[in-house]
Design brief:
The chain is α/β, with parallel strands linked by helices. The protein is built from 9 helices and 13 strands.
Length: 319
């Protein structure tokens, strides 16, 4: 008798289905059990408003988590950068698989690179984080750009360029790679130019906290280096955020020889969306060996950034 299929909850977008398909394949390999995708519509998929207006963090996550808690699916796959920083007690982050390329990329007309865009170039992005850093870079390097707020899936965003409405759009390398459109990238934005969103390029596999057997099975997919890096990034975000949807970028990377690296560098940035003021700092230390160690690294860098005026760039902070 064949084992009952594991039900994987996923958003319906092409990218989410592609990401979830990759995880489903990995789970089948590890467990030998069949896996079926259960598409779920989230508020972030339905609304045409900008994410900051409909609640920002969590709009792509809540419906999946509700389905988990109701027992409609056995586990769910999220883009890690969409997860709120506080983990609910009744859900477990069972696995963080190896991370894809965390960088942001440009898809521009005429295969142009970012620095080759014409004066007054219109660049589309729905992210305050990208807007702040692109404008700061442009100011510092004598470039004249206009950032244009956009929403929509990857196809919609690239079409703005193809139709001539925009000169370029900014997207995540990981997303384009996962849907097989990586060859349309015209420029990779160095992390020295634009730090990615905390957790960008990583996936989160979540199930209910009381399902010890499934947690153990899914844990086979966990990559400890990716997990410790994104934990530090999200800890920084949590300490800076304090209730506001701030334009925060963060990246933890290993220094040295790949998996034998002994040190990790955490970089963080926060800035005003017009690019006039930014606070960007980094810290380097031994690769944290525990969840608490990674959390502490993020909190420490956040404290240094707040001491340098980061809070003033994010509006009112919750007390």
């Amino acid at each position: 008798m064949t084992e009952k299929a594991l039900r994987l909850g996923t958003r319906r977008s092409r990218l989410a289905m592609a990401q979830s398909g990759l995880v489903a394949d990995a789970v089948r390999q590890v467990t030998g059990r069949p896996v079926e995708l259960v598409p779920i519509t989230t508020q972030g998929d339905i609304s045409r408003e900008h994410l900051t207006q409909i609640g920002g963090t969590g709009v792509f996550v809540t419906a999946l988590r509700d389905a988990l808690l109701r027992g409609e699916v056995d586990f769910a796959v999220h883009s890690l950068k969409d997860l709120p920083t506080a983990q609910p007690a009744d859900l477990a982050l069972a696995a963080v698989p190896p991370r894809e390329d965390p960088r942001d990329v440009i898809v521009a007309r005429d295969a142009l690179k970012f620095t080759d865009l014409p004066r007054g170039a219109r660049i589309g992005t729905g992210s305050p984080r990208r807007t702040a850093q692109l404008n700061a870079y442009a100011r510092g390097h004598g470039l004249d750009i206009e950032t244009v707020p956009i929403r929509g899936n990857v196809d919609t965003r690239i079409r703005y360029v193809q139709d001539g409405d925009l000169d370029a759009v900014v997207l995540a390398a990981a997303g384009l790679n996962r849907i097989g459109r990586g060859d349309e990238v015209t420029d990779f934005l160095s992390v020295d130019t634009v730090l990615p969103a905390p957790g960008q390029g990583a996936l989160a596999i979540e199930c209910t906290a009381d399902n010890a057997e499934l947690i153990a099975l899914l844990g086979e997919l966990d990559d400890p280096f990716t997990r410790v890096a994104v934990t530090a990034e999200r800890s920084l975000l949590a300490a800076l955020e304090a209730g506001c949807s701030a334009p925060v970028g963060a990246l933890a990377d290993l220094l040295g020889d790949g998996r034998t690296a002994k040190e990790m560098r955490l970089r963080g940035v926060v800035g005003t969306t017009d690019g006039t003021r930014t606070v960007q700092m980094s810290t380097t230390g031994p690769v944290p060996e525990t969840h608490e160690g990674a959390m502490a690294l993020g909190r420490e860098l956040a404290a240094e950034m707040l001491a340098q005026g980061a809070a003033g760039l994010m509006g009112e902070r919750a007390q």
